[in-house]
Amino acid sequence: MSLTELAHQRQDYSYAFLDEFARRELRRRILKAIAIPGYQVPYASRELPIARGWGTGGLQATLSIVGPQDTVKVIDQGADDSVNAVNLRSFIARMTGVATTEDALAATVIQSRHRIPEERLREGQVLVLQVPDPEPLRRITPDMSQARELHADADYALMWLGLYEQLVRFGTFTQGASYPVLVHRRYMMSPSPIPRWDTPMLHQAAHLTILSAGREKRLYVVPPYTDVRPIEFDDVFFEVEDQRGRVDQQTGATNKFMNEIPQEDGTSRYQLSDTGYAAKLTQRKRGEPAEIGATYYDDEGRFYIEGFLKGEGQGRARPSPETPPAREQ
């Protein structure tokens, strides 16, 4: 037997780009995070051929769990065709050889920036959310060592005080994206810069959700069928963005999360944020076959878990100012 026969075939990169030690470490950190829902687990964030702040945390989590049998979907603020989504999807496919799709129901791994698909995800699917800032307590204490102590003691009194100050000054909760939630009645968590419309989708979800921040070198997990509750008062409830009266210009869909498109005459038109879901509705409108799954909100705007949203109109809130989403990791 010759040396050539014993040698492995030349490879320019490891499978999924990351070396096996890095992928193994990430999988172990994910397992620890699954065991402690909402707890921020540190990990060694590796260098990737994209700049930090453009999805490195989510990309590392995806590359560590993806396998040849998987089908991957990548979205950026709901869109499959944005520059960031296309580049990340192409890189994942090139490094792993996995199939890609724009159908949320067909994907086994969904990597997303700032949105959760409108169609309900099922058991066996994994949602990877890119996170710019994993620390929900940063607004009340810039000292991260003190924040760790507050998490350890489950001392979130200053967060409730911040909510009260918002009510006193503005009459409503003013925080939009990254609205803080309590996971498994224990850890306070930032759900990444998803809109408040998406925040209830994490509660008792059938799928696994991994949230990873590459620049901050931390990840945390919401396991399937875990309580995830937005913080609120007993008499002042959490409310999602108001989508009433908004109709998608292409499909006629209502009571789904919309992008507002200002017009020259001062009016606005609306477009579904989830382009994959919009494509299915368009196919059905044309009479073409399309498999459309159940959505988190029905056509009347009611959330699928009855009684979870206690605000006016099953959580269809009054409009309120939103915090601009930060750049993802």
Please outline the major beta sheet: 7 strands, mixed
CATH architecture type of the largest domain: 3-Layer(aba) Sandwich
CATH superfamily label of the largest domain: Bacterial phosphonate metabolism protein PhnH
Query: How many strands?
Result: 12
* Strand line-up across the major sheet: 1-9-8-5-4-2-3
Q: What gross morphology would you assign?
A: globular
Proportion of helical residues = 25-40%
Number of domains: 3
Strand content: 15-25%
Give your account of this protein's structure:
40% of the residues are buried. The protein starts with a helix and ends in a 14-residue tail after the last helix. By secondary structure, it is α/β, with parallel strands linked by helices. It contains eight helices and twelve strands. It has a seven-stranded mixed β-sheet with strand order 1-9-8-5-4-2-3. It has three domains: 20-134 and 181-230, 3-Layer(aba) Sandwich (Rossmann fold), CATH 3.40.50; 137-177, no CATH class; 258-314, no CATH class.
